[in-house]
């Protein structure tokens, strides 16, 4: 990300976006223009990218503007920004919102974003939380904005999906394949556990594609910006049990439900779960050692599940499948 020891004026950029310290004069001027410094490169030092943290600098200020606009921020909103970097995205977010809480892992970036707003009218509206976004507790927020490193993408999405109180939306940039997984449909190659769980709990819209050449240094893959809106009210399902079933089925999504569920290891897990639930509810368990296998056969032989595969089932199918198993005493958590 750009590091300007003098620049404290408004800027545009993206979380975790950083730039290498080696550049020619033209590239340096372009980076500073993107940061809103008006091309004044004299005496400017740039923080070297920490690629281990997935840091890349977004050179195109139009993309930054588009992300901020698509977030639909109101003047009364509290914004959560994950990875503010040097503040390129933070400044326009501050200008549009009531407050920005920014979580930053890299202490170099923390110092830079604080310098960016020091002495400005937005200074009092910014709070920096130093730490790992996966581990720290999120403060209250209305809108989340983030450019997410690949290594924390899945964990961050699941954390947001379970966050309460509910927020209005999250506008986030991911690597393209990950972003497409979030909205993948049954039968598509990218349809997976992530797709099903995300779509159960939220509406996902693909907003825009961002080519790799918009970044410096360019990442190895293209990126996409998505908007995630939590379903309110949330579906009436025990998510732990739901995810337990989805996790099992998507271990081999192209195998039939019967093939996946009737392995010795899965049967053993389901038998243990059945005994645990029976004990918790003061119920007796049938000593029939083949009971779980018979229940599996009974459910997967139903017309809507016969010879079906997880990769072809939609949300309604999975919900009905869980109901059928639960009615017969089979639980997945």
Q: Over all CA atoms, what is the radius of gyration?
A: 24 Å
Tally of contiguous helical segments: 12
State which percent range the strand residues make up. Answer: 5-15%
Class computed from helices, strands and strand pairing: alpha/beta
Query: Helix and strand succession?
Result: HEHEHEHEEHEHHEEEHHHHH
- Helix fraction, binned, reads 25-40%
| N-to-C span | 44 Å
Can you tell me the residue ranges where pLDDT is under 50 for at least 5 consecutive residues? 1-45
Shape: elongated
Number of strands: 9
Average pLDDT level: 85
- Main sheet: which strands, in order across? 4-3-2-5-6-9-7
Major β-sheet profile: 7 strands, mixed
Would you give an account of this structure?
This protein is an alpha/beta fold. The protein is built from 12 helices and 9 strands. Strand 3, helix 4 and strand 4 form a beta-alpha-beta unit. The radius of gyration is 24 Å and the shape is elongated. The N terminus is likely disordered.
Gist of the model:
The protein is α/β, with parallel strands linked by helices. The protein has twelve helices and nine strands.
What's the structural blueprint in terms of helices and strands?
Elements: H1 25-34, E1 57-58, H2 61-70, E2 78-82, H3 90-96, E3 99-104, H4 107-117, E4 126-130, E5 143-147, H5 153-161, E6 169-175, H6 176-183, H7 193-201, E7 202-210, E8 215-216, E9 223-230, H8 239-250, H9 257-261, H10 264-280, H11 291-300, H12 315-327
């Amino acid at each position: 990300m750009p590091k300007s020891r003098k620049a404290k004026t408004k800027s545009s950029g993206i979380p975790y976006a950083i730039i290498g310290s080696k550049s020619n004069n033209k590239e340096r001027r372009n980076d500073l223009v993107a940061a809103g410094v008006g091309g004044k490169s004299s005496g400017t030092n740039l923080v070297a990218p920490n690629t281990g943290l997935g840091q890349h600098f977004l050179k195109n200020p139009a993309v930054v503007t588009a992300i901020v606009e698509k977030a639909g921020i109101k003047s009364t909103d509290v914004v959560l920004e994950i990875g503010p970097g040097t503040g390129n995205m933070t400044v326009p977010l501050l200008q549009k919102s009531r407050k920005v809480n920014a979580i930053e892992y890299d202490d170099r970036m923390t110092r830079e974003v604080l310098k960016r707003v020091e002495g400005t009218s937005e200074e009092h509206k910014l709070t920096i939380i130093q730490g790992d976004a996966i581990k720290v507790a999120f403060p209250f927020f209305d809108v989340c904005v983030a450019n997410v490193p690949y290594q924390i993408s899945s964990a961050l999405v699941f954390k947001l999906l379970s966050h309460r109180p509910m927020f209005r939306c999250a506008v986030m940039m991911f690597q393209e394949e990950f972003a497409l997984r979030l909205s993948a449909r049954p039968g598509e190659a990218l349809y997976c556990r992530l797709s099903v769980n995300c779509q159960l709990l939220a509406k996902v819209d693909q907003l825009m594609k961002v080519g790799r050449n918009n970044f410096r240094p360019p990442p190895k893959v293209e990126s996409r910006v998505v908007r995630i809106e939590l379903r309110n009210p949330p579906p009436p399902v025990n998510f732990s049990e739901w995810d337990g079933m989805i996790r099992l089925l998507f271990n081999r999504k192209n195998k039939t439900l019967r093939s996946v569920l009737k392995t010795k290891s899965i049967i053993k897990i389901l038998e243990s779960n059945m005994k645990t639930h029976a004990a918790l509810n003061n119920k007796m368990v049938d000593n029939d050692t083949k009971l779980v296998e018979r229940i599996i056969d009974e459910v997967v032989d139903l017309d809507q599940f016969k010879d079906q595969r997880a990769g072809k089932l939609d949300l309604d199918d999975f919900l009905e499948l869980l109901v059928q198993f639960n009615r017969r005493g089979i639980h997945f958590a």
